[in-house]
Specification:
heterodimer, A: mainly alpha, 19 helices, globular, B: alpha+beta, 2 domains, four-stranded antiparallel beta sheet, two-stranded antiparallel ribbon, 6 helices, 6 strands
Chain lengths: ~425, ~210
């Protein structure tokens, strides 16, 4: 069509600034306070510190994954000098900039360390306590003490938040500065610094996932784990980003700016990273451990195949991979907002279920011995993953609302479009071939 | 192609050159992408079938202007991928899990093969091969069918005899209409192309 080039979309302020953002931020903030309150109260009342703490880690990792996924998206767009994505970059940046305050979410874990209760979440934090349960495991984990000790653990956590906060603050403020100055040198600088930022991102999320999720069962290890968490970040981040774009457009902004062409590409990213890549690495991790058949590794999977956890494992195979794979493989579901939104919500739900699967089960000790193995399997035959547990759900949904509320707040009074990016024209005219 | 040209070559006097050589078609030159997109819409609406656009770089919206339907290649590739996946599974079931006898050019018998203490039918162990064959079948069928559906490889095209047409890989945009098109009449087609704003229209002969 000839008019594709001549028809410029509405770039007036009315189309580029959100009018309902304040109300969204307030409502979501209230919902967040309520849900986190319910989660914290039920968790406190249950008296089970271990389960409460693990539910908290699920919630924290869920919102971190969303924002880290958005951070990855923004870095990779700069790094590859992507033209198509300029119109969807600001919503991604708004999710990403939450990483500047997310260290606050880590404070409860700092508090656990401060009061000497960190071992209730991370068994390696008190080897004497661990030795009471299993001397063999404690001896094994004792060899990892050079890395898994409380001091270094908190130093590393501080480093992650400095890295994430620093990178996202730099990318967020430079993007906003370009809105005012229109200086193309800002894009060039972003490109230059995105290289080192990507390297730091890769290392930091790998170590963070090892620290906060893998070390929950300190005997177990998987070299695939950092990549697994990256797949979680991509799943949650790309889904949330796409939903945010759809929401802003439904509120009447960015009309004619984000088109089905851009949604199709967002859908492709979600399809590639959230379904195919996730299945690839999740299966790779499983198959190597299954084939190797070493008790210290298989115990982790054993705890996820007893009772209701077995059904959760199957649910992940179908719900995280096969069903959405079929749903989003065609062209039209990625271009039609309704199907794309369903796909994104679906993937967010399964991103959450995946985190529950990774974090909540307790890995058994000393199951190398067949009698212990059978004993454990029999004892946990009626276990089930309490996905609807008010603590787990309240904390996760509450933090999700909190992040959305802060995202909406960050966009108030700002342009919803990186309106003076040098590649804006390319992005507006973008078409899939 | 040859029969069509002899029957449909117009009886009206050709404007200039080579009356003896068989006419391949007409080629019209345009100066910018907007012109060729507008012209393609007109040519499409006049009902021509054997025609094409030649541009030095991809022009957005040209597919739609030409009325080209979306390719069915993705569907075929999906089928090929599913076939690859099934082949991988069947191959391993036969070679590892069961003792069927089947005829594959000669009579062959599979037998259960104990590997690493795993059950003879261990789907997780089969997945890598199923995955690889899925990719292999999809990739090969994607490239192969793309060549086939585009009529490639085609080492020569009569358009290459036209000197003017060489700028199609540089800075000009061309529409070619083949003489075998049922609606092709040299004088009328030439007028059609001119009315679309062609900077020049030239006849191309078979070589």
């Amino acid at each position: 069509m000839a008019h594709d080039h001549s028809n410029t979309p509405d770039l007036s302020a009315g189309n580029l600034t959100g009018s309902g953002l304040g109300a969204h931020a307030r409502n979501l903030g209230l919902a967040a306070a309520l849900l986190i309150g319910i989660g914290a109260w039920t968790g406190y009342r249950s008296g089970d510190t271990q389960e409460f703490a693990r539910a908290y880690v699920v919630a924290m990792m869920f919102v971190l994954a969303i924002c880290l996924g958005a951070l990855f998206f923004v870095i990779i767009q700069h790094l590859t000098r992507a033209g198509w994505s300029v119109v969807v970059r600001r919503p991604a940046e708004a999710l990403m900039q939450n990483l500047r305050w997310m260290w606050i979410l880590f404070l409860p874990i700092v508090w656990m360390g401060w009061t000497g209760r960190l071992f209730e979440l991370f068994p390696w934090a008190d080897l004497a306590e661990m030795a009471k349960v299993s001397p063999a495991d404690a001896a094994l984990v004792g060899n990892k003490a050079g890395f898994l000790n409380q001091k270094f653990f908190f130093i590393r956590a501080a480093m992650y938040f400095v890295i994430w906060g620093g990178i996202s603050h730099y990318l967020w403020s430079s993007s906003l500065r370009q809105d005012r100055t229109g200086d193309p040198a800002i894009s060039a600088a972003n490109r230059k610094w995105s290289g080192p930022a990507m390297i730091l991102f890769g290392f930091s999320i790998t170590f963070a996932s090892v620290d906060w999720m893998m070390s929950l069962s300190p005997v177990w290890f998987s070299t695939m784990f950092g990549v697994y968490f990256f797949a979680v970040c991509a799943t949650c981040g790309f889904s949330a980003m796409t939903l945010l774009c759809l929401r802003l457009q439904r509120d009447g902004q960015l009309k004619g700016i984000i088109t089905p062409e851009h949604y199709q590409d967002l859908g492709k990213l979600l399809f590639a990273f959230g379904m195919v890549f996730w299945a690839y690495i999740a299966f790779s991790q499983f198959m190597l451990i299954w084939y190797g058949n070493l008790p210290e590794e298989t115990a982790w999977y054993l705890s996820r195949q007893v009772g209701g956890w077995l059904w959760l494992s199957w649910a992940l195979l179908f719900g995280h991979f096969l069903i959405p794979f079929v749903l989003l493989i065609s062209r039209w579901p990625k271009r039609w907002p309704t199907t794309l939104a369903i796909g994104c919500v679906w993937m967010l739900v399964f991103g959450f279920i995946d985190l529950v699967y990774l974090i909540v089960p307790h890995v058994p000790h000393d199951v190398g011995d067949f009698a212990r193995y059978s004993e454990f399997a029999a004892a946990h035959a009626s276990d089930s993953p309490h996905l609807l547990d008010p603590t787990l759900l309240g904390l996760t949904l509450g933090m999700f609302c909190l992040v959305l509320s802060m995202t909406m707040r960050s966009l108030m009074g700002k342009s919803l479009l990186a309106s003076r990016d040098p590649s804006l024209g390319e992005s507006l005219a973008f078409q899939n071939m | 192609m040859t029969t069509l040209t002899t029957t449909t070559t117009p009886t009206t006097a050709p404007s200039s050159t080579a009356t003896s050589a068989r006419l391949y078609g007409l080629v019209a030159e345009f100066e910018n992408p907007a012109q060729i997109v507008a012209a393609a819409e007109k040519i499409r609406d006049k009902g021509y079938r054997y025609w094409d656009c030649h541009t030095p770089f991809p022009v957005h919206g040209l597919d739609k202007a030409m009325g080209i339907q979306r390719t069915i290649l993705p569907v075929l590739v999906f089928v090929a991928g599913a076939a690859g996946c099934t082949t991988g599974l069947a191959l391993q079931l036969f070679t590892n899990s069961f003792n069927f006898t089947i005829w594959a050019l000669v009579w062959v018998t599979g037998y259960p093969f104990l590997i690493s203490g795993k059950p003879a039918l261990s789907i997780p162990a089969f997945v890598p091969v199923m995955f690889e064959l899925t990719i292999l079948f999809s990739a090969l069928s994607c490239v192969g069918l793309m060549f086939l559906m585009n009529g490639l490889p085609k080492l020569h095209n009569p358009l290459f005899t036209c000197d003017r047409f060489r700028r199609a890989s540089d800075d000009r945009f061309f529409i070619s209409i083949e003489a075998r098109d049922p609606r092709f009449y040299r004088s009328k087609t030439e007028a059609d192309l001119k009315s679309c704003g062609a900077a020049a229209v030239e006849a191309v002969v078979e070589d």
